[in-house]
């Protein structure tokens, strides 16, 4: 069963149960009932809906911010691992060392200048980037150490390439939007309900009330925009950047 169908059934059932209970309860009320003696439920419901929606907004913002931070961290780990590969390759013969470093630079240059744009626009990585990283892995794993010093550096180099590959996979997973559609549905419907409840409180045309209503609506719109902007860690304004690559590989230019 589709999640949207389940959601629709659950919402319709909840509304139906509440309405049925209210109708049945009103039928039991006598003619001498005085509603003025009971507290007005409208203000209480408005307050509770506002509180619940604020909690949902806070959780959504925290979730997308955590996703953006994780995406930026994966970039840092990948850049650091590749930097370690270049540094640790110094114990190898000049021919092997230069080949490893050249292939690392080629991969980083491709990520910064080509793959980053593709990742931002299409939410995916490039085949060329995978090939270049595979070439770095081949450079490291295919060499047979000739001395004990080279042998001691071999496994750490392999581990750093594996760490870079794992970070690249994390970067791929974080490339697209992370917020499910059903959550967006709840956020938008909640915003409409919360703003709509303003009109149940008999708002007037005084400057103060209109100003507060406008600011409240603008605040909710801003928070929804913030969630949308953070939802794609690499694709929108406040996104993760390639700065760790540029900082650790000064020779690479954009």
From TrEMBL:
This protein's UniProt keywords: Membrane, Transmembrane, Transmembrane helix
Lineage of source species: Bacteria, Bacillati, Actinomycetota, Actinomycetes, Kitasatosporales
Species: Streptomyces pakalii
Pfam families, alphabetized: Bestrophin-like
Residues that span the membrane, as ranges: 6-24, 44-65, 182-203, 210-228
Residue runs in coiled coils: none
InterPro entries: DUF4239 (IPR025333)
Protein name per Swiss-Prot or TrEMBL: DUF4239 domain-containing protein
């Amino acid at each position: 069963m589709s999640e949207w169908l389940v959601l629709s059934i659950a919402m319709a059932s909840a509304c139906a149960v509440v309405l049925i209970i209210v109708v049945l309860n009103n039928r039991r009320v006598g003619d001498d009932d005085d509603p003025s003696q009971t507290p007005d439920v409208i203000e209480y419901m408005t307050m509770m809906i506002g509180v619940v929606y604020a909690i949902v907004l806070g959780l959504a913002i925290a979730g997308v911010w955590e996703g953006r931070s994780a995406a930026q961290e994966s970039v840092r780990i990948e850049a650091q691992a590749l930097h370690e590969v270049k540094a640790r390759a110094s114990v190898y013969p000049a021919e092997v060392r230069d080949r490893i470093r050249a292939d690392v630079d080629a991969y980083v240059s491709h990520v910064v200048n080509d793959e980053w744009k593709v990742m931002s626009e299409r939410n995916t990585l490039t085949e060329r980037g995978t090939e270049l990283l595979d070439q770095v892995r081949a450079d490291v794993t295919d060499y047979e150490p000739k001395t004990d010093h080279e042998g001691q550096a071999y496994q750490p180099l392999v581990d750093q390439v594996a760490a870079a590959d794992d970070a690249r996979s994390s970067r791929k997973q974080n490339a697209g939007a992370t917020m499910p559609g059903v959550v967006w549905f709840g956020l938008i419907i909640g915003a409409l309900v919360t703003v709509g409840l303003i009109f149940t409180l008999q708002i007037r045309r005084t400057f103060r009330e209109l100003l507060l209503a406008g600011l409240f609506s603008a605040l909710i719109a801003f928070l929804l925009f913030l969630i949308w902007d953070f939802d794609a860690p690499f694709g929108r304004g406040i996104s993760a950047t390639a700065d760790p690559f540029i900082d650790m590989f000064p020779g690479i230019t954009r």
